[in-house]
Write a structure and sequence with these properties.
By secondary structure, this protein is an all-alpha fold. It has eleven helices and no strands. It has two domains: 33 residues, no CATH class; 184 residues, MetI-like fold (Orthogonal Bundle), CATH 1.10.3720.10. It starts with a helix and ends with a helix.
Length: 274
C-alpha cells in the first residue's frame, strides 16, 4: 500500500509542481506586492492610487462583464432549449454543429476577427450595404464597448451552452412530455421546467465565464481604444509605461475580490440547497 501511495505521489508531482510554479507562486507574489511600497514597507497607497486613477474603469469593467454574463446566460438557455425542445431535426443538427465553433478560438484571434467584422468598413457593414439594407453613409462601427460585449458573448456562449445543453439532455423527458400533454408551450416548458433543474450547471458556467472575461487583455485592447477601458488594460499600462507593479497588482487584487464574490454567492446558494 505504501508503494502504491508513493507511486501516486510521483505521478501527481509534475502536475502539482506546475500548478505551484505557474499559478500559486505568481498569485501569492501579486497579493503581497499589492500591499508593498517601493521601499519595501507595508502600505495601502497602491489601492489609493488605483481607485484615484481607475475607479471609473473598475465600474466600467463590472458593467461590461455583468452585461456580457447576462447575455451569455440568455443565449445559452436559448441554444440549449432549442436543442432539447426543437422539432426540426435539420435545424437542431445544424445548430449543434455551428454553435461550438467559437469554443476553440483563442481570445486574441476572436478579437482580431471582430475588428474586421465590426469596423465601420468591416464585413458586417459591407454585407448590409451590398444587400441594400444600409447606405454607406448609414454604417456605424462597433469598435467600442459594444464590440467588447459582442466578442465576449460570441466567445463564451458556446462554453456555457455546451454545459447547459448537456444538463438539459440528461433530464427525465417524462416531465417535458407531461407538460406538453397539459398544453404547455415550449417557452413555458423551458423557463418553468428545464431552467430551474439545470440552474446549478448554468451558474457554474457563468461564474467560470465571469472569471475568464475578467482576466482577458486582448479583447478590450484590440477592440476599443477609448476611455474608460477595462482593468486588464490598466494593469498592462501601469507595468509597461511606469513599471508600477504595485498599482497593477492592486488592480489585480480588486479583480480577485470581484471574482471571489461571485464564487461566494454560488457556494452560499449551493450550501443552502444542500
Amino acid at each position: 500500500m505504501q508503494d502504491r501511495g508513493r507511486l501516486g505521489v510521483l505521478l501527481v508531482a509534475p502536475a502539482l509542481a506546475a500548478v505551484l510554479v505557474l499559478f500559486v507562486y505568481p498569485l501569492g507574489y501579486s497579493l503581497v506586492t499589492a500591499f508593498q511600497a517601493k521601499g519595501g514597507g507595508f502600505t495601502f497607497g497602491n489601492f489609493a492610487k488605483a481607485f484615484e486613477f481607475y475607479s471609473v474603469d473598475i465600474g466600467f469593467t463590472l458593467v461590461i462583464i455583468g452585461v456580457s454574463t447576462v447575455l451569455i446566460a440568455l443565449a445559452s438557455i436559448a441554444i440549449g432549449g432549442y436543442l432539447t425542445l426543437g422539432e426540426n431535426p435539420r435545424a437542431v443538427a445544424l445548430l449543434r454543429w455551428l454553435y461550438r465553433w467559437p469554443l476553440f478560438i483563442p481570445f486574441v484571434v476572436a478579437a482580431q476577427c471582430m475588428r474586421t467584422f465590426l469596423a465601420k468598413n468591416g464585413l458586417m457593414n459591407n454585407t448590409l450595404v451590398s444587400l441594400g439594407i444600409l447606405e454607406v453613409e448609414q454604417t456605424v462601427g462597433f469598435l467600442d464597448w459594444r464590440g467588447i460585449i459582442i466578442t465576449f458573448v460570441w466567445k463564451q456562449t458556446p462554453f456555457v451552452a455546451l454545459l447547459v445543453a448537456g444538463a438539459m439532455a440528461s433530464l427525465d423527458r417524462s416531465t417535458i412530455e407531461a407538460a406538453r400533454n397539459l398544453g404547455a408551450g415550449r417557452l413555458r416548458i423551458l423557463f418553468e421546467i428545464l431552467v430551474p433543474q439545470i440552474m446549478p450547471t448554468l451558474v457554474v458556467g457563468l461564474i467560470l465565464s465571469f472569471v475568464t472575461m475578467m482576466s482577458v487583455l486582448s479583447v478590450p485592447l484590440m477592440i476599443s481604444g477609448e476611455s474608460p477601458t477595462m482593468m486588464t488594460v490598466d494593469m498592462a499600462f501601469r507595468i509597461n509605461n511606469y513599471g508600477d507593479y504595485g498599482t497593477a497588482n492592486a488592480l489585480g487584487f480588486i479583480s480577485y475580490l470581484l471574482t471571489a464574490a461571485c464564487a461566494w454567492v454560488y457556494l452560499k446558494r449551493a450550501v443552502r440547497q444542500s
